[in-house]
Every structure is written in structure tokens, then in C-alpha cells.
Amino acid sequence: xxxxxxxxxxxxxxxxxxxxxxxxxxxxxxxxxxxxxxxxxxxxxxxxxxxxxxxxxxxxxxxxxxxxxxxxxxxxxxxxxxxxxxxxxxxxxxxxxxxxxxxxxxxxxxxxxxxxxxxxxx
Length: 122
Hints:
The protein starts with a helix and ends with a strand. The protein has a single domain, classed as Immunoglobulin-like, CATH 2.60.40. It is elongated, with a radius of gyration of 19 Å. The chain contains 1 helix and 7 strands. The strands form 2 sheets. A 4-stranded mixed beta sheet has the order 2-7-6-4, with no helix packed on it. With 122 residues, the protein is of the alpha+beta class. A hairpin with a 6-residue loop joins strand 6 (95-104) and strand 7 (111-120).
């Protein structure tokens, strides 16, 4: 009987926690894509998240191989798509670029972060 109670409790706890895991704003896609090599220098980096984000508490930074920022400041979100953040870029030279992102989910304020790279090789 105790095993049944413990098993039921464990399943209930797992189900309760699974809903909150889906509320995190994770990277769904990016342009340029994670790990991509592009032949034309991008003028911005755009990230689509799995959930709506709060732009004021979310960010994107783009760094060159020396660690210098090559983005143009604060990330922006269009009024009609709260899952999308983008940031303008300065003129890029060929090389590898690192994108650091942080997102705060609009639903529950959970914070997530990640990193990916892309290569500009004309």
C-alpha cells in the first residue's frame, strides 16, 4: 500500500512540475541559425522563443572572436510577436560570432539563457 501511495505521489509531482517546464522561454529558432555559416554578413540576429518573453528583461549580445560586442544595443520585440527578439549588428568582418541570449518568460517570469555561434564566411 505504501508503494502505491509513493508511486501516485511521484507521478502527481512529476505532472505538476511538467507544466512549469513548458513555461520556460527557450530558443526555438534563430537567424542566422545556431551553428550556421552564412556568406552574406547579417545586419541583425533574430531569435524566436518557445514562449512569449518580456523584452525589458531579456537580451541578446553578439560578440566577435576577441570578445568585443558587435551588436547595436538593446534587443527589440515587434508589437505583434512577443516570442521574437532581434538586435541590429554593426558591420561584420568574416569570422566566428558568439550569440549570448537571456530571456524572461512573460507567463511566469522564469529566466533562461543560452549561447550559440554562427560563422560569417563570404
